[in-house]
Structure prediction request, 180 residues.
Amino acid sequence: MRHGKTNNHLGRKAEHRRAMLANMANSLIEHKRINTTLAKAKALRKYVEPLLTKSKTDSTHNRRTVFSYLKNKEAVTELFRAIAPEIATRPGGYTRIIRTGYRQGDNAEMCMMELVDFNTIYGKEVEQATAKKRTRRGAAKKTDDVALEGGTDVIEATEVDAEAKPKKTRKKKDDSTSAE
Prediction:
């Protein structure tokens, strides 16, 4: 019976499962985003989030503990140097799972798992890009206002253009009647 057994075995023996999760965690730390099945992503979240919490306090004990899980010096260094300062203020929920559809071969549900503070879609870059667009629009409005205030020639030209457009259509109608 499986009373109180909370981990997903993923069809593997314990050693194979630990090695797979360690490799996936290394890839997630290195690339900040991985594509995998939904079941593996949920298992990886339970595996990697405590490691991310440990990385927030940089001590020898925490480094050795994380290394015992990851078995990769470069991943541990990346975690403590680059990732930990970014997630220092976040109280939890360091990863995001976005479902991407179903795999064609076996119809397994696929997803993209990423570190929340390292994405480019929902992060700070999007807010800065929209702020730049707003600035450009505001600058364009200011130049139009200056042109309108600067002289009345612009206003007269628009009035002439507005009157000329209906005349052109009338001339075309007159031309068509005279051609017949």
